[in-house]
Amino acid sequence: MPIPTYADAVRYVRRQPRINASTLSDGLGIRWSLALDYLERMERAGVVGAIEDDGWWPVARVEGPPVARKPGTGAKGTTLRRGSPPEAQRPAEAPALPPPTSAATNNDQQQLLEKLREAARVLMAERENMQKLRDACRLLIAEREAWKRRALAAEARMLTEEADEMDRQRFDALRRVLARELHPDYAPPDRGDLSLREALFKSIWPKVEQIERKGRSG
Length: 218
Description:
Low-confidence stretches: 64-97
Structural class: mainly alpha
Number of helices: 6
Number of strands: 2
């Protein structure tokens, strides 16, 4: 990545109300000593004013002659030495900047995001499985109710058939009784009411057969 030039530094500084070497160094991502060199050049060019007591340069908003000052000399004779560590030359009043996000932190955040996505996929799969189980339970309940209805209908048919069979058995028993009592062939030879028995049989038996036909047809 190319090192920001002096012109880049001027454009950055003109957007600030005041500037110091630490702020310019952090803002452009350059060494503190190079930021100090840029600011000294800006002071000579009139881009910034003379350094103040707190170590900050006011950014000039209008063109004007530069304020005379010995190069490398701060306010009240304080000498800014190049090459010294930033901690020794940074003013006490300079605001603390947040530390840059490290690659490890980004990696941890990415791993956490992937875990959350995986947990969301697992949750969606479990929800789909639960819905499938609910559908299967509803189907089983419907089948059970259908079998129950068929069983009740079969039981009802069986009871009806048993009742019909009992009715047929009673009717056959009654039919046999009538045949023995009224049919002329079953009459004792010594009885004189043979003609009466024959007349009754001819009158009643067609009705018995008619009832029997209706029972068989339905």
